[in-house]
């Protein structure tokens, strides 16, 4: 497959290049491996309250977005920099790293928490990697097969306690490297992509041999879990991926997952999160809809909330206000597309 012939650059939003939405500017803040310290949670909460709409919005890449911002993001950038959330301004849009959210807490073959930080340092230290498209995605899977199923452009996945597979667009390349060599392997693949990508934004858009897909597993299950050290943590989901600033502040240290859920590493107190795996409507997601998006044909979030009590927890459903279907999940789901005469229901 030839790379698509695009005439416009990738416009993935960041902090310095925001998206102009109907409710104000939208900024996306990258979180390596989804990890947020208590101090960073406080900073994000303060930015949401003082500069935005009062909430943080979770994304399908384990990042967060702030909405309702002024187009002048100078104060936002200064506050995020002070919190350690903008370590390399030139690279901020390409710091897209997934990592198994429960790594080092429970399960998994290896602990990739330090490796994702090493990966971030390696990317930020290479000025030429700032040229990657904002959609390019790195991943580190600790062997449980969770984030490797998200079709990252380049991924290292543990196969045992010492060796891992290198994947391109979710497919096995056959290359095997130890955890200590994972970052170098991903750097090589990123360099290769920049040499050959043309106008492509993702590896999957290139004409590559079809490799094997390794078995994947679902995302982090909702509910309380027992850590390997015997202590207790909990995973919960904010309704429609939107978490009030006050709740974020109360949660403190968290890990944001690519499934719009949040891991609280210690304790079971989870304000603002649904932690009951049997809660109705748990599998419903939605784009921002009206009034936040001028392209939306409906207030999809209000419609999604209205139907939640009648949708069993195991049903995956996504409400979209237009054909772009922003924020739709990767896994199979019921597709609810708003139209001029109501919703068109399909499968995706």
TrEMBL record:
Pfam families for this protein: NIR_SIR_ferr (PF03460)
EC number: 1.14.13.83
Entry annotated with the keyword Protease: no
InterPro entries: NIR_SIR_4Fe-4S, NiRdtase/SiRdtase_haem-b_fer, Nit/Sulf_reduc_fer-like_dom_sf, NO2/SO3_Rdtase_4Fe4S_sf
Residues forming coiled coils: none
Primary enzyme class: oxidoreductase
Keywords annotated in UniProt: 4Fe-4S, Heme, Iron, Iron-sulfur, Metal-binding, Oxidoreductase
Top-level taxon in the UniProt lineage: Bacteria
Domain Nitrite/Sulfite reductase ferredoxin-like: 26-80
MF (Gene Ontology): precorrin-3B synthase activity
Name of the protein described by the UniProt record: Precorrin-3B synthase
């Amino acid at each position: 497959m030839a790379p698509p012939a695009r005439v416009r650059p990738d416009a993935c939003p960041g902090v310095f290049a925001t998206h102009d939405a109907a409710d104000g500017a939208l900024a996306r803040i990258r979180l390596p491996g989804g990890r947020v310290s208590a101090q960073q949670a406080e900073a994000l909460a303060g930015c949401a309250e003082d500069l935005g709409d009062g909430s943080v919005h979770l994304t399908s890449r384990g990042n967060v977005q702030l909405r309702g911002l002024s187009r002048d993001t100078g104060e936002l950038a200064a506050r995020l920099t002070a919190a350690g959330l903008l370590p390399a301004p030139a690279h901020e849009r390409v710091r897209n790293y997934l990592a198994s959210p429960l790594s080092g807490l429970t399960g998994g073959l290896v602990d990739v928490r330090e490796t994702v930080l090493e990966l971030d340092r390696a990317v930020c230290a290479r000025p030429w990697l700032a040229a990657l498209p904002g959609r390019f995605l790195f991943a580190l899977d600790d062997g449980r097969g969770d984030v490797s199923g998200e079709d990252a452009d380049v991924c290292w996945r543990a196969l045992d306690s010492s060796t891992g597979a290198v994947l391109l667009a979710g497919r096995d390349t056959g290359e095997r490297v130890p955890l200590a060599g994972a970052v170098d392997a991903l750097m090589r693949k990123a360099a290769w992509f920049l040499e050959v990508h043309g106008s492509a934004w993702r590896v999957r858009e290139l004409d590559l041999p079809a490799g094997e897909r390794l078995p994947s597993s679902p995302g982090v299950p909702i509910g309380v879990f027992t850590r390997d050290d015997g202590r207790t943590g909990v995973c919960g989901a904010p309704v429609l991926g939107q978490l009030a600033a006050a709740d974020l502040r109360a949660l403190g240290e968290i890990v944001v997952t690519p499934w719009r859920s949040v891991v609280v590493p210690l304790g079971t107190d989870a304000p603002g999160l649904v932690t009951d795996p049997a809660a109705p409507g748990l599998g419903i997601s939605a784009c921002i809809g009206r009034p936040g998006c001028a392209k939306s044909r409906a207030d999809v979030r209000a419609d999604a909330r209205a139907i939640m009590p009648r949708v069993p927890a195991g049903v995956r459903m996504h409400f979209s206000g237009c054909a772009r279907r922003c924020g739709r999940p990767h896994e199979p789901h019921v597709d609810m597309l708003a139209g001029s005469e109501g919703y068109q229901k399909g499968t995706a």
